[in-house]
Amino acid sequence: MHVYLVDPRQSFNKIKKLEEACKLISNYTPIPYQCLDDKKNILEVNQAWLDIFKFNKVEIIGKSFCELLDHQNTKLFESKFSHFKNNGVIQNLEIEVNKQKNDYKLISMDGIIEYDEKGNFKYAHCFLKDITKFKEIENKLKNSNNFLSNILSSIQDGISVLNKDLDVIMVNSTMERWYSHSMPIVGKKCYEVYHGLDKPCDACPSLRALATKKPALELVPKRGPNQEINGWLDLYAFPLTDEESDKIIGVIEYVRDISDKKKAEKELKDSEEKYKYIFENAQVGLYWSRVSDGKILECNNIFAKILGYDTSNELLGDFFASEHYVNPNDRQKIIEEIKRHGSVSGYEINVTKRDGTPIWLSISARIIEDRIEGAAIDITKRKKAEQELKESERKYKDAFNKINFFKDLLAHDVKNIFNNINMAIQMIGLQKKQKEETTVTPSEEELINMIRIQLEKGIKLISNIQRLSEIEKGEKIKKVIDLKQVINTSLQYIQTRFQERNIEIIRKMPKVIPRVLGGELLIDAFENILLNGIVHNNSKIIRLEIIVSEIHENGLAWVKIEFKDNGIGVEDERKKNIFKRKYTKNNKNGGMGIGLSLVKSIIESYGGRIWVENRIRKDHRQGSNFVMLLKKG
Q1: Record: fold of 135-263
Q2: What are the DSSP E strand ranges found in 131-281?
Q3: What angle (nearest 5°) sits at the alpha carbon of residue 78, between those of residues 75 and 81?
Q4: Who's near 496: CB < 8 A, 6+ residues apart?
Q5: Closest CA to 378 of 308, 315, 329, 320
Q6: Which of 569, 582, 494 is nearest to 536 (CA)?
Q7: Interhelix angle for 442-472 vs 596-605, to 10°?
Q8: Closest CA to 53 of 109, 124, 112, 106
Q9: Domain 11-130: which CATH class?
């Protein structure tokens, strides 16, 4: 006699793509379950399996299922397993399994094969039924009707015996408890008891067992006192044969209450439908991907649209996350971050869409076994807005600094220019009054000349401010400049202005001084540096040294101009900030300079560079060396 288990066409097939749901079914179903690989090794078992065979899960995972079988059953299983892999389904395979220490269990196995998208074998899902008791009952029924009665009374599941006309002739206490409240069971037809019908229907398993001489299975309702359905039963019908004539003489019905199982399946189905609704209607992109190569295993349509696909199915065909990172190292960084903290939230990454367009995503994710489970939000617009805001803030700050700078510049230097003019006029008047002369003396001529020079300086300063403003706005006015003339003009101005100081000027220049790329403001830059070496100098003899040389750097020809002085020098911590905007008024020296920050702006506007060093290495107190690089004209 053979026992049939649950038809493999159950809800497991409908939700096999949802791994979490599968795990719930396998873990909580009362039917023993095992998952095998193509070499018959055990990959997974559920608690019902462990309860039957009394093994520890740690010691059984990875073990060959054949190790639990004796030689004869191993040969049987191996021959059936080959057919199982090719056919995809196995039913009612009865084999004997070594439980523990020569304690055997007779099981009936049903199973299905899970194939991958290419049709290759992936897993063998097997559902087992412990039919040891069934076989014991079957054997004992054949030998003794009295013994059958005792067995029926001891079994917790429902047992009934029918004659070949489908009349109930014997039931155990469980069946009486389930059905005697509605009507007497013994003497009734089985279809009257279970279905409330006056004639058998095609779904009646006992009728099928009689007709086919094979066991049959059917799901029947469990009814309450008022015929209401309050549960469900699995009804197994086994045909009984006469030992001598081998004729069918009746049917044994074995009934198991699966109400809890059906309730769990319904709850699981409801949970699955709820999960699917949330998954597909979430306003963020949801996905699962392999840790190893970034292959997207599942995602919702929102995630697909974020990456430039119309549907999730379209994306699943060819999208590998590892191929779409703008910086390939970012993927390893986020995986390490997840492993370090267990998960990440709001992690920002730069990836490309299907067409190569870069976008920014905010990722929240965790790793479960060998896959990443995550949610993604497109933050490209936000990142762009942040960048535009930073750029706007920078431009505003620059504009604000320029306005303040020009204001300080005009307030300082124009005031000094006109103070000098006023002082010169007063001195002319005073001298003429003291000498009572009307003719212009050489001294008066010198003062008048000073007035003229200062007025010219004032005009020139205003003009320079206008041109400098153009430079700051990006309108760079460049031309080839005679460097020798610029140096001579700057030195002449210094010598005229500081006649009372003892200044020694040293020039170290090639015979042919190269021309440079610059503009009209170059003289102002030179004068400012030379002024810096005089104003900040307490030496009795002021030494200014100008060194001109040619160098090559990064494939370009440069002219290097060094301005060395023996002044107080620049401390190391001030060297980094000396060219930043900081204008200090100094009425004593009547500054005509425009500040080192503008010197830097002028030089850089002509494509050059400027920095400051110690004149004597490692000793800033020995004076400074302002080094300027200008492109060779």
Answers
A1: Beta-Lactamase (3.30.450)
A2: 158-163, 168-171, 216-223, 229-241, 248-257
A3: 150
A4: 453
A5: 308
A6: 569
A7: 60
A8: 106
A9: alpha beta
CA distance 229 to 221: 6
Q: What is the pLDDT, as a whole number, of residue 625? A: 94
Identify the band that residue 269 occupies on the pLDDT scale cut at 50, 70 and 90. Answer: confident
In the numeric block, which tokens belong to residue 408? 């300080």
The CATH fold of domain 282-377: Beta-Lactamase (3.30.450)
User: Domain locations in the chain?
Assistant: 11-130, 135-263, 282-377, 379-467, 476-633
**Which of the given ranges, 51-55, 144-148, 267-271, has the highest pLDDT on average?**
51-55
Distance CA 369, CA 266 (A): 28
pTM value is 0.34
- Say what the pLDDT of residue 2 is: 39
Q: pLDDT of 229-247, one tens digit each? A: 778 888 888 888 876 677 8
* 46 three-class SS: coil
The residue type at 93:
L
At 283, list the tokens. Answer: 């306003």
CA-CA-CA-CA dihedral for 36, 40, 45, 48, to nearest 10: 120
Cβ(608)–Cβ(631) under 8 Å?
Answer: yes
CATH number for the domain formed by residue range(s) 476-633: 3.30.565.10
Phi then psi for residue 621, to 5 deg, are -75, -10
Question: Do 476-633 and 135-263 fall under one CATH topology?
Answer: no
Amino acid at 110: D
For CA atoms 475, 478, 483, 489, give the dihedral sign.
negative
Beta-strand (E) ranges in 461-541?
A: 479-481, 503-508, 516-518
Q: Which residues of 224-233 are buried (b: 16+ CB within 10 A; e: fewer)?
A: eeeeeeeebb
Q: What count of Cα atoms within 13 Å lies in the side-chain half-sphere of residue 467?
A: 19
